[in-house]
Write a structure and sequence with these properties.
The chain has 384 residues and is α/β, with parallel strands linked by helices. It is built from 15 helices and 13 strands.
């Protein structure tokens, strides 16, 4: 089997990413990239990628720059893969990484590599008629408890209303993040208290403070202590992603579990994050960290450090499905993220959307990622 094409489709829906004033559900991403890898045997792999999709498309579509084997360093990612065997995921990952190293190593190039890697694992599962979780090496569980992932609302009443809706939908854990949080410390406390009051103490409340509000480690500690009485399951993204020393200071000072990692990439980046920050929960995003090939290594590193892994997944059901396979592979998988955004790029990409049952999402059992991408939706929202 040989790869015949690697594409990134740029999708755009109506409206922009919004932070709601009321209890209404946010729209979610306005732009999304979809990687589609095809083969000469008619097997196609897919992945979404939450990045600047037109830039990622340029990384994939760029022409071959170098001449001669072993000289690749400025090459477009598709030029490095066409004609190759898609089942050689480890070799192809490194071929893309090295072949783009002068313009990549991190950022959008690595995010494009991540999505391609997920699509290659999807192809491998379909070719071998096995779920990706089995190919990764383990399927410890058939379902994972999901937490509703949404934005902070602007008032305590809106927070209570939103939290009540998630309970009605069957969630037993809810994360509020970003939005208005950080603008007014007093209001921050009232918003978290409102969410806890609506959820009750028997459900889990997660808080994402958003690192765009820049804090010193002392300020981050003050934020945690201001809401610790609400018993958050974890607090994430308190500091700049590269502030490993700051994260360590916070994690070693407070009792609440501290999480980060959605912005981190590569096995080398996560090795440093885990070793230097001493956080309690690491949050690799499969479409940013390096795909399944890197995420499997992250799991092993986290096991050695006795650090929990809860993957970040905030784009669509397609990425959630990939994350469910990853959670099935993990020895410990307490939660999986489920973006509740109501926009079509979040909800409509898969022909059969993922469904919550008793607060859990089932790990897809079909070959590959186990979900079917609706090509009609791709064409409807495709702009490039």
């Amino acid at each position: 089997m040989k790869i015949t094409s690697v594409e990134l489709l740029v999708l755009k829906s109506d409206g922009l990413y919004n932070s709601p004033e009321s209890a209404e559900e946010p729209l979610g991403p306005a732009y999304l990239g979809i990687v589609r890898v095809t083969t000469d045997e008619g097997i196609t792999g897919y992945s979404d990628v939450e990045t600047c999709a037109p830039v990622a498309k340029a990384c994939i579509d760029a022409p071959k720059w170098s001449e001669g084997e072993g000289m690749e360093c400025f090459d477009g990612l598709a030029s490095l893969l066409v004609g190759e065997n898609p089942l050689e995921v480890e070799r192809l990952w490194y071929r893309m990484y090295r072949g783009s190293i002068y313009y990549g190593r991190r950022g959008v190039a690595l995010q494009a590599i991540s999505a391609i890697d997920i699509a290659l694992w999807d192809i491998a599962g379909k070719a071998l008629r096995q779920p990706v979780s089995v190919l990764l090496g383990a399927r410890w569980r058939q379902r994972v408890r999901a937490y509703a992932s949404t934005l902070f609302r602007a008032s305590p009443e809106a927070m209570r209303q939103a939290a009540s809706v998630y309970l009605e939908q069957g969630f037993t854990a809810v994360k509020f993040g970003w939005g208005v949080f950080g603008r007014d410390p007093g209001m921050d406390v009232r918003l978290v208290e409102a969410a806890r009051g609506a959820l009750g103490m028997e459900r889990d409340l997660l808080v994402d403070t958003g690192w765009f509000i820049e804090r010193t480690p002392k300020q981050a500690i003050q934020v945690v202590r201001s809401i610790e009485h609400c018993k958050p399951y974890l607090i994430e993204e308190l500091l700049h992603p590269e502030d490993y020393a700051g994260y360590r200071r916070v994690a070693e000072t407070v009792d609440t579990p501290i999480a980060c990692g959605e912005q981190e990439a590569t096995e080398w980046g996560f090795a440093r994050l885990i070793e230097e920050s001493r956080i309690d929960v690491v949050q690799p995003d499969l479409s940013r960290c390096g795909g399944f090939t890197t995420a499997r290594k992250i799991a092993h590193m986290a096991d050695r450090a006795n650090t929990l892994v809860i993957p970040h997944a905030w784009s669509s059901d397609l990425l959630t499905a990939a994350s469910l396979h990853y959670c099935a592979f993990l020895r410990r998988a307490p939660l999986v993220e489920f973006s509740t955004s109501r926009g079509p790029l979040s909800r409509d990409l898969c022909a059969e959307p993922l469904r919550l049952v008793d607060g859990h999402l089932g790990v897809p059992a079909g070959p590959g990622l186990g979900v079917t991408v609706d090509e009609r939706v791709l064409e409807k929202y495709r702009v490039a």
